[in-house]
Amino acid sequence: IRYDGIAAAIGYFDYALALDSKDGMALVGKASASYWLGDFTTTDRILDSFDAGGFEMPIALMVRGNSSIFRGRYEDGIASLHLAIANESGMSNLSYWNATLALGYYCLGDFGKALVTVTASQEFGTQYWLGHLVKIATLARLGRLEECPAAIAAYTAEYPGATASENDWMPFTDKAVLQDFLSVLREAGLPE
After folding, report:
1. pLDDT per residue over 16-42, tens digit each?
2. Which whole-number Å values give the CA distances from 38 to 8, 50, 66, 148, 170, in the listed order?
3. What's the pTM?
């Protein structure tokens, strides 16, 4: 469902861009939707146009950070996300930005920072599915398996019937990273 919704969003962004090809929010939206669909070429092209324009919107930095993390450029992604968060002016939900930042720390193997960051993410809101997944996987990696059932219950309260395998579409360019992440979720107790 998430994947299909993201794919449908591309059409809306294209429509907005047909009306105004310089609509910054539509450009960022399309860049974001594109990396979620694994189209990093489109994401880079749009972000490069922002760079050429000489301005950095915090949300564009967020897209750059997220895209970098899913491509295995964890340090770059973390740096972009820190810059985006530092320059955020109430335009967005920091729950989302911190959740992806936590994923970056998780992928680097810094599970302590991942847990602190995802906990901060969930203080801003619990509606973002990625924050739940990062928390579950991080607790498991830290050997805190006794805390995983509560984290899974929080996730399934937001997303009834949620499973590990429904996230196999996540756009990690290194599929081994994706498979490891899903495996840890299963080991933590998230249903197949």
Report:
1. 999 998 888 888 899 999 999 999 999
2. 14, 20, 12, 29, 8
3. 0.90
